[in-house]
Amino acid sequence: MASLTLKGLTKRFGRTTALSCVNLHVKDGEFCVLLGPSGCGKSTLLNIVAGLLPQDEGTVLLDSQPVDSLSPRDRDVAMVFQSYALYPHMTVAENLSFGLRMRGVPKATIRERVLETARLLGIEDLLEQKPSRLSGGEQQRVAMGRALVRRPRLFLLDEPLSNLDARLRDSVRLELKRLHRQIQGTIVYVTHDQVEAMTLGDKVVVMCDGKVHQVGSPETIYSQPVDTFVASFIGSPEMNLYKGRLIRKDGCPHFVGSGFSLKIEGVQLDLDGCEVEVGIRPEDIRIGQGVSVALQVKVEMTSYVGSEKYMHGRLGQESVTVRVPREADFRAGDIAPLSINPDRVHIFHEGRRI
Amino acid sequence: MKRIANGYKGERVSRERFELAIIYVLRFAGILFFVAIVVFPFYWMIVSSLKSLDELLMRPANLALDIRKINFRAYYEVLFEHGFQRYIFNSVYVSVATLVLSVVLATLGGYAVTRIYFRGQSFMSYSILIIYMFPAIVLVIPLYVAFSRLGLRDSIHVLIVVYLAQTIPVALYMLRSYFKTIPPEMEYAGLVDGCSRLGVIWRIVIPISAPALASVAVYTFMIAWNEFLFAFMFLDTPEKFTLSRGVVQIAESVHLSKQLVMAASVVATLPIMILFLFFERYLVKGLTAGAMKG
Fold it and tell me: Which of A208, A233, A258 is the endpoint of a domain?
């Protein structure tokens, strides 16, 4: 297994910039998830690391050795594709052994490793089948197996779960996590699904428009989003974001938005009078009178998602989403008191966290 | 209300029946017509080739074949006295060479215009068929003059070059359409698994494209086997004749014997018929597969 370092990686397609100056370090054995909306350049990044696309600027290093001049074959990385890309004219066993055969591994070793991998993934019974006869979940396993059997320096996974149905996706996701524990491999995993990113990643890289917005553990990404993009992209339902102004009252900075104001602590005073945005997650707002900031919300509707319940309403001119106790009973038009924990308020100035 | 509904329904059923009947009749008539114009000449050819010259001269309009009087004399003469063994060899040589070269070049070319990016790639890709804007008859005279001046004309190898120029565009076009349906990820997987670009073509693209390759092979073989115009213009020496040129040689000979011409035609047609019937499945599959997503 190897560590992966990207330095100043830039890729342009004609006039559009797919990646601009991406820097990243993935430690040996780390599970790194690239998360971003579709078209943000995360798959392009993966293809460049694999050597399938040349970058315009920057360097890819495996174990601190530049690999830019190496062909995909010589980089010794394995890739799992969204469409699985199994070879349709070969059996499962042939699909698994293809990479080893291409590298001239002795036949006995190949047989042993194919069996071992098939056992690990529970696909021993499918070895003689053609991929077209397999179900989606089985195909996915074979695609994983084709990467695992090679014991490469680095695994690249491009949305490997997105073609599975929801239930299967959950179970395969857990299996993947377990598998990573077992093989201790370095994995770069691309997804647009934040649940996958949060549950799988040791490290999450949030990308948008070819730029890395934030790199951090799932906890950091969620609790300390570095800018408004990360703040609104991570979390479901979305974080409540309000535009307004910082104004000093009684020696303390206050956020004044359209319809409500909040007392805020721990903000540099030189931002007095600046346009800012505050973000509050639905679970950081409480129904009822609280310690500090009390507000009134007009209820519009509630949505029940099984384990949780959310109330959507109006806070002055703005809309607000609040996580409420499951037994809470609101009707449209009700007026309810809210309190916001000031320690959990995120403040952004010109889009960046302060 | 109920009656109206029933009446309406009844009318619709009878109309449907009427239309089905018309379709049935037209389809039958159509099939009959095409069978007649395709099968009849073929039948006539075989029957005539199995008769003796006397019988043909005495009763030229007799369509039937008397089983007791079947005569293979014409085939013997065609094969052993008129040099058709040589012509068969020449035709096989020219056709197989055209097939092999055409498939190899069209595979590489078709792959290049679908997958490898270079300046003018899309122009190349779409201008492949431009050569078909020129009828062969327009090309044959300048080519005749050019190859004559070069002293290369009377050669079956030059004929192969001309046939390649005729078959590669369509072969390339067919393969290009098929290659486009192969997801690029399949090839990426091959590259990551340790193949070179040529390795990917050989181990992944070609096996997946087997039906298209089979149909291209049959197509090029047929074109080369049946081609007459260039063979007629270019070849002077009888030892170099292909079958189609050989048939004309017999037809033009001083003492025209119809059964010989017919036997020669059968010898020229039969292999290609058998080949076609054998590969017909692939041919249709390969021709339509690319068209779906083209």
Answer: A233
